[in-house]
Design brief:
Distance between the termini: 29 Å
CATH class of the largest domain: Alpha Beta
Number of strands: 5
Shape: globular
Oligomer: single chain
CATH architecture of the largest domain: 2-Layer Sandwich
Length: 153
């Protein structure tokens, strides 16, 4: 994950309005790749470990939903979030690209939830999943023997 060139251009424009010099495009993205992204990943892993430790011996109900980059069947990317119901803590994030699911954007949400649940179930005791009304997700959650509560949105 990285900032887009648009973000760089906006920062450059902002600095020019203030009369400030700014680093080059290649330096900006190199600094981001070498320092910023590893720092964010390290913090997220630490925070996630702390949260999973908190829920280790508790029966957990998770809520999940995916957000695509565009509506309909033309979506290319999806970000799926799993959140603990009572505390509202996000416990897992899964990013899927439709190239990972046979170029079918309709499969991204099911695959993302499956991957996220698999990682979480190795650490905590999930007893229920609350999600939207996708039939493929209900079927998949039923196969792994969890209760699935469907919310129609």
């Amino acid at each position: 994950m990285r900032c887009t060139p648009i973000i760089f251009k906006l920062l450059l424009l902002f600095c020019s309005f203030l009369g400030l010099s700014f680093i080059s495009n290649s330096t900006f993205f190199r600094m981001q790749r070498l320092y910023l992204i590893p720092c964010i990943n390290e913090w997220w892993n630490w925070q996630r470990d702390q949260l999973l430790e908190e829920f280790k011996n508790v029966e957990v109900v998770v809520c999940g939903d995916g957000q695509c980059d565009s509506p309909g069947h033309t979506a290319k990317n999806l970000c799926y979030f799993l959140m603990e119901l009572v505390s509202d803590y996000i416990l897992e994030v899964e990013v899927r690209d439709k190239r990972h699911v046979g170029l079918a954007s309709t499969n991204m949400e099911r695959q993302a939830l499956q991957n996220a649940l698999q990682r979480l179930r190795s650490s905590i005791n999930i007893v229920e999943v609350v999600t939207d009304a996708s039939t493929s997700i209900k079927k998949m959650v039923g196969k792994i023997q969890l209760t699935c509560i469907v919310v129609y949105s």
